[in-house]
Design the sequence.
């Protein structure tokens, strides 16, 4: 952006003395690159290079104790081994289907809850101080670590946990509900608990920017509450929803700790597969899985940005 | 310290060479050597379970050596040895890892002549025998990987040599843990782990190389298949084993899988599971919470494991001497007694016995009822007088070992299939 604008600005008054000013333009252009260099360096050193190395290693051979720099596609063949079988899908397909399921469920719940909370804080709370206070209240659970918030569900949901004990005590059930813990339910519950704030923040941010007179205009034009919500608020909140969705989906796609702990290690996740391979020192196999995961997440984000043009909306 | 900094690299090297010469020429002088010199710090790489603060304190008192623990998980130990052999001075790892470590060339053979108690190390390691009786050697049995052909050899020797790979620190025989109060009937076979009676209340550990061996013990117990070597399966055998596990998983047999010590304790103590693969100190911990838990001996035998001290290839000079001194100290009794009191077994039994009370030795090692309350190293009461150790004496327990923790030749394939099991 800046790269294109600055030279153009420089050239407008430069028309009479073209020769001397092209040098100046060049200098300015060089300056722009110098200014961008630190960020570019950090980006290259800590993101591009590791990513490139991962890509390279994913094509290497390995044995029990070393990785051998010779080209092979075996790691990728292993990742997709048996994946054409529809009746009994391979590990990779199963894992991705399960991860996608968690993504979809978590996304739906965090969006619903996040939107509602943000809507309440942005439109129903009048004073700005109160808004900020309530907004901070939303972040309180995040003052403790991720793992602790997750693990604290276990004594609540266990076979002899608080929920089962209470229900038994009230006589609502006559045997403990097994599915509360170490199940899909537990995983989704923990994901929603952990990630809703990532929806609330960007959606609230988008809502705060909506011009209130637009809403008044909608009411004046005779729109019902729901119509205003659907035709005015939701379209204007789209960028927030999109950013929140990207946060939630990338977090869920790459997670293996939550799935591991809440699923009792019985539910597969892509991250878990990679971790098992890493701990067995099968780094190239893990790298191949990581590249496939990266591809999958990028496809999802591309799909989302197709739906909403973030740059334009912001 | 300051004098060392002033020395040039050349003089340092000369000094190191001279030390080496003196050591080569004369007899080993032992501990006083180190005490006389400046204090040495040994960076001790291993799993947290073996890294006790008491041992570090005692060795500081006795030898003046400072032990700096680097606690990581088992897989991470292997990774460190293979990728960063300079980052530690003393290695404490499992014998089964040796199949990965030795070919990497980052471990040096230990000179048996410098280990005073080398000849007294229990024959479990040197010959694969207990009380003159041969024990199960399926998997990576220590006797298969105990000796190297030469100090820097990358292959194991089939008969005793003077180069030892690892000096044993602790070893034990693992079996299933059960909740006798919830099962309410005797359990005598590994096959109970997959018994539908315990549907939704069983667990297996999620460490592929160990988990699959527990599964193999179960499959053998059902009479379904007998493995030529449970610790080194063929691809077909891996497929067969994983298939049984997947069927059990889909039928809802497992409540959860566990990966670390505390997870296994929590599953058992909270009653989420009533039967599962378990480690001995985890059973002790469940019991210390006042929950009944038995480390159940089973008729098919135990799956054993062993850890030991190794020396990284780059270690030389005074640090190498200090490492030998530390290992000699470790085998000299105090540490052995300390470990035996936690339910592990120590490498040299005689020296450990000399450091234990008779009633303690009788309870832990001879399988006799406790004459007095049995206390742990920290003084807390582990068992009341009259209690008998699960599985009995050392000879009964170690004598019933069926197989050892292992790394298979088909490890890569096995890990892939294990991931399939988790995803199923």
Sequence:
């Amino acid at each position: 952006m800046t790269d294109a604008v600055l030279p153009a600005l420089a050239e407008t008054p430069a028309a009479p003395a073209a020769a001397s000013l092209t040098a100046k333009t060049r200098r300015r252009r060089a300056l722009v690159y110098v200014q961008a260099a630190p960020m570019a360096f950090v980006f290259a050193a800590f993101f591009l290079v590791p990513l490139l190395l991962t890509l390279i290693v994913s094509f290497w051979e390995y044995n029990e104790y070393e990785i051998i720099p010779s080209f092979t596609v075996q790691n990728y063949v292993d990742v997709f081994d048996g994946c054409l079988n529809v009746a009994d899908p391979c590990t990779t397909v199963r894992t991705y289907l399960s991860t996608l399921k968690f993504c979809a469920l978590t996304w739906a719940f965090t969006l619903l809850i996040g939107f509602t909370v943000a809507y309440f804080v942005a439109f129903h709370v009048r004073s700005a101080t109160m808004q900020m206070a309530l907004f901070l209240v939303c972040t309180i659970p995040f003052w403790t670590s991720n793992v602790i918030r997750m693990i604290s569900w276990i004594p609540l949901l266990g076979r002899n946990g608080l929920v089962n004990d209470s229900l038994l005590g009230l006589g609502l059930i006559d045997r403990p509900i097994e599915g509360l813990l170490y199940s899909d339910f537990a995983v989704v519950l923990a994901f929603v608990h952990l990630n809703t704030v990532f929806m609330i923040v960007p959606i609230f941010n988008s809502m705060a920017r909506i011009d209130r007179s637009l809403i008044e205009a909608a009411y004046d034009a005779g729109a019902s509450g729901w119509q205003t919500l659907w035709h005015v608020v939701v379209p204007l909140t789209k960028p927030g929803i999109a950013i929140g969705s990207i946060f939630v989906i990338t977090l869920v796609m790459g997670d293996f700790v939550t799935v591991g702990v809440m699923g009792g290690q019985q539910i597969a996740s892509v991250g878990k597969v990679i971790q098992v391979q890493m701990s067995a020192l099968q780094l190239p196999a893990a790298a191949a899985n990581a590249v496939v995961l990266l591809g999958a997440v990028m496809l999802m984000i591309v799909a989302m940005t197709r739906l909403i043009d973030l740059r334009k909306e912001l | 310290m300051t004098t060392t900094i002033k020395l040039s690299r050349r003089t340092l090297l000369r000094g190191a060479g001279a030390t080496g010469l003196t050591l080569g020429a004369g007899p080993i002088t032992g501990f006083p050597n180190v005490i006389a010199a400046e204090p040495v710090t040994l960076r001790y790489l291993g799993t947290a379970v073996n890294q006790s603060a008491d041992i570090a304190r005692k060795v500081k008192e006795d030898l003046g050596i400072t032990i700096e623990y680097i606690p990581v998980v088992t897989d991470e130990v292997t990774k460190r040895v293979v990728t960063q052999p300079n980052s530690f001075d003393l290695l404490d790892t499992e014998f089964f890892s040796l199949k990965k470590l030795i070919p990497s060339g980052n471990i040096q053979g230990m000179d048996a002549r410098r280990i005073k108690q080398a000849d007294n190390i229990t024959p479990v390691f040197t010959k694969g025998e207990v009380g003159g009786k041969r024990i199960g050697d399926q998997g990576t049995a220590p006797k298969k990987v105990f000796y190297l052909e030469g100090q820097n050899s990358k292959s194991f020797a089939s008969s005793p040599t003077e180069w030892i790979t690892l000096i044993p620190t602790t070893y034990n025989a693992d079996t299933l843990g059960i909740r006798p109060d919830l099962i309410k009937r005797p359990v005598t076979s590994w096959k109970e782990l997959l018994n539908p009676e315990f549907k939704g209340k069983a667990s297996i550990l999620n460490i592929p190389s160990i988990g699959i061996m527990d599964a193999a013990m179960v499959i053998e117990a059902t009479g379904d298949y007998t493995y030529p070597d449970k610790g080194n399966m063929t691809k077909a055998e891996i497929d067969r084993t994983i298939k049984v596990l997947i069927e059990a998983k889909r039928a809802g047999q497992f409540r959860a899988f566990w990966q670390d010590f505390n997870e296994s304790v929590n599953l058992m103590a909270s009653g989420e599971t009533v039967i599962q693969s378990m480690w001995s100190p985890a059973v002790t911990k469940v019991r210390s919470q006042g929950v009944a838990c038995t480390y159940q001996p089973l008729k098919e035998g135990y799956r054993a494991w062993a850890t030991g001290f190794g020396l990284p290839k780059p270690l030389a000079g005074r640090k190498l001497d200090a490492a030998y001194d530390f290992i000699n100290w470790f085998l000299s009794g105090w540490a052995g007694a300390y470990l035996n009191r936690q339910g592990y077994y120590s490498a040299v039994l005689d020296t450990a016995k000399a450091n234990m009370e008779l009633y303690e030795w009788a309870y832990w090692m001879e399988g006799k009822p406790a004459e007095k309350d049995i206390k742990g190293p920290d003084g807390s009461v582990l068992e009341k007088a009259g209690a008998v150790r699960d599985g009995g004496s050392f000879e009964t327990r170690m004598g019933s070992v069926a197989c050892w923790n292992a790394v298979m030749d088909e490890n890569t394939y096995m890990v892939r299939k294990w991931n399939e099991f988790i995803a199923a």
